[in-house]
């Protein structure tokens, strides 16, 4: 009897009149209490269902703006799962650890490992190096833009070796005009070069070095990348697009942009360096839009994953980003050219963080002078093409 009268946590007050005389009144009261509880629960439910999305939308406004194509429900689901994992952190500390990157900090003083001997065309010199590529043997391939050559700097070497070009500025097959990007086709043992000033993409085989080929012509190439299947991606500065090419293609396949220049999510302004990840997502640094956009496979527009808040030096801004590389955790490292710093962003961040530099333009070891490119070696050390200082800086990973 008692237990039947208890609704919720509030016991029904003992009332002899009630219990002895009028069971139906009791039942009615009981029912009303039940109804009342349900109304309360209903109200709470309504309030929660209204406030939770509002809170989430408020905190995630920027994400939603960036992910404007994604249905809001999906975004909320993502947010909710984030909230859940945050609240369970205490019970499950691994949630925290999971999001903490392994490679976190680098020494702030760089070591010059290539160039740094003034600008010139000797083998220990560079002129405005731009893109760098570190191969499996720890050799650094450098697009030595001002010297119209690609130079390979073996590990711990005092000078480089010209592996492509180096025959003066020109249009012959063995010449370049301001090459600004280089990547390696491991399978074919070839290097792919963005021969910017000659409006073409070149291929040199690393072994022979005697048979350079025009891989793509009539393209205002600004960046080249290769995916795990050997497809070549090229950013086109004149057509505001990225195309994917395979051997023998005459037009390639449009994979990003191609909707004239602009700042809409389906457009580019100054598309330059490209990175393609394992899922075939294409990351593009846009010098004109001061942002990095990411185009998932077959997407019709990109999402902004870094910057996109106008040109400036705020932590939420970039100023003419150039070199860019994405690690296995999806962290995006950016040569923030005009800000003379290297930034790191993760997708969804409102602000980036400074990795190295950011101490004004200069040639001290803690400074950069308009960084153009960057890469990592297998140990996680960071390398930066410090364009204006005609040197490549190495920043050792701090082991914690
Ligand atoms: C993000 O960056 C902006 C601009 O630099 C700054 O005003 C703001 O405080 C930063 N927010 C956080 C959470 O660090």
TrEMBL record:
<keyword id="KW-0677">Repeat</keyword>
<dbReference type="InterPro" id="IPR011042">
    <property type="entry name" value="6-blade_b-propeller_TolB-like"/>
</dbReference>
<dbReference type="InterPro" id="IPR001258">
    <property type="entry name" value="NHL_repeat"/>
</dbReference>
<dbReference type="GO" id="GO:0008270">
    <property type="term" value="F:zinc ion binding"/>
</dbReference>
<dbReference type="Pfam" id="PF01436">
    <property type="entry name" value="NHL"/>
</dbReference>
<keyword id="KW-1133">Transmembrane helix</keyword>
<dbReference type="GO" id="GO:0000209">
    <property type="term" value="P:protein polyubiquitination"/>
</dbReference>
<dbReference type="GO" id="GO:0061630">
    <property type="term" value="F:ubiquitin protein ligase activity"/>
</dbReference>
<dbReference type="GO" id="GO:0043161">
    <property type="term" value="P:proteasome-mediated ubiquitin-dependent protein catabolic process"/>
</dbReference>
<keyword id="KW-0812">Transmembrane</keyword>
<dbReference type="InterPro" id="IPR050952">
    <property type="entry name" value="TRIM-NHL_E3_ligases"/>
</dbReference>
<feature type="transmembrane region" description="Helical">
    <location>
        <begin position="36"/>
        <end position="57"/>
    </location>
</feature>
<protein>
    <recommendedName>
        <fullName>NHL repeat containing protein</fullName>
    </recommendedName>
</protein>
<feature type="repeat" description="NHL">
    <location>
        <begin position="362"/>
        <end position="398"/>
    </location>
</feature>
<keyword id="KW-0472">Membrane</keyword>
């Amino acid at each position: 009897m008692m237990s039947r009268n208890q609704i919720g946590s509030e016991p029904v007050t003992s009332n002899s009149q009630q219990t002895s005389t009028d069971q139906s009144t009791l039942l009615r009261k009981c029912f009303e209490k039940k109804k009342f509880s349900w109304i309360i629960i209903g109200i709470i439910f309504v309030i929660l269902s209204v406030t939770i999305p509002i809170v989430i939308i408020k905190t995630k406004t920027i994400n939603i703006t960036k992910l404007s194509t994604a249905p809001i429900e999906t975004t909320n689901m993502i947010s909710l799962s984030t909230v859940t994992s945050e609240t369970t952190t205490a019970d499950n500390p691994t949630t925290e650890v999971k999001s903490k990157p392994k490679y976190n900090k680098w020494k702030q003083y760089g070591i010059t490992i290539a160039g740094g001997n003034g600008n010139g065309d000797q083998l220990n010199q560079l002129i405005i190096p731009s893109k760098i590529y570190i191969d499996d043997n720890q050799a650094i391939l450098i697009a030595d833009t001002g010297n119209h050559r690609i130079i390979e700097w073996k590990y711990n070497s005092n000078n480089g070796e010209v592996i492509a070009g180096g025959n003066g500025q020109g249009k012959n097959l063995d010449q370049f005009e301001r090459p600004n990007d280089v990547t390696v086709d491991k399978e074919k043992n070839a290097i792919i070069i963005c021969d910017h000033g000659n409006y073409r993409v070149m291929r040199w085989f690393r072994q022979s070095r005697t048979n350079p080929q025009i891989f793509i012509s009539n393209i205002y190439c600004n960046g080249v990348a290769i995916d795990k299947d050997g497809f070549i991606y090229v950013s086109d500065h004149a057509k505001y697009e990225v195309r994917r090419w395979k051997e023998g293609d005459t037009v390639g396949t449009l994979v990003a942009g191609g909707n004239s220049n602009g700042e809409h999510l389906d457009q580019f302004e100054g598309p330059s360096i490209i990175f393609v990840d394992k899922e075939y997502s294409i990351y593009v640094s846009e010098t004109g839009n001061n942002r990095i956009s990411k185009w998932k496979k077959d997407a019709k527009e990109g999402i902004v994953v870094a910057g996109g808040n106008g040109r400036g030096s705020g932590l939420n801004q970039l100023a003419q980003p150039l070199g860019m590389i994405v690690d296995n955790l999806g962290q995006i490292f950016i040569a923030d050219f005009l800000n003379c710093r290297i930034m790191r962003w993760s997708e969804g961040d409102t602000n980036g963080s400074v990795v190295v530099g950011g101490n004004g333009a200069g040639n001290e070891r803690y400074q950069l002078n308009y960084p153009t490119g960057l890469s990592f070696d297998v140990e996680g050390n960071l390398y930066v093409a410090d364009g204006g200082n005609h040197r490549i800086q190495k920043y050792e990973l701090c082991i914690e």
